Amino acid sequence: MAALMGAMLAVAVPAHAADTVTSNLGVSAVVLDTCTLNAATALSFASIDNSAPTSQAVPGSLAVVCTSTRSGISVSLGAGENASGGTRRMISTDGNYLPYSVYADAGHSSAVAAAENIYSGDVTAAIPLVIPVYGQIPAGSYNAGLYSDTILVTLTY
């Protein structure tokens, strides 16, 4: 009889099922409404030959990308770190100066002065706006050396 009772208990007690607990996992993100500005192509002049006194011109570009479409943005150029009397200048490691100008057009008819906008207009969301920039060194005789300058570019949106 004891064996029968043990068998009945074994059959009468259901097997223990695994417990299940649920919860929620929150997911969120913040997409900032911003714009970025990059010098896509720097103004990099080739070697200047003083025996051929002609001006040198090079193209460059800036790129603006915004997360949303914007109207009325502006991009302006500073004078450069070595400007003097309204003239942009590169400086050599020896302290010599090399003048240059920045233009908004390939024909070099529209020089961009310090703090002047090189672009004013609209930008479409997530599509890079490429702004052409042109540099020119006037004809002249210059001291040999490695010259450089940095122009602050400001994006207002």
TrEMBL record:
Keywords: Signal
Organism domain of life: Bacteria
SMART domains: SCPU (SM00972)
InterPro entries with a match to the protein in the record: Spore_coat_component, Spore_coat_U/FanG
Cleaved signal peptide residues: 1-17
Domain Spore coat protein U/FanG: 22-154
Protein name in UniProt: Spore coat protein U/FanG domain-containing protein
Coiled-coil ranges (or none): none
Keyword Signal: yes
Record's keyword annotation contains Signal: yes
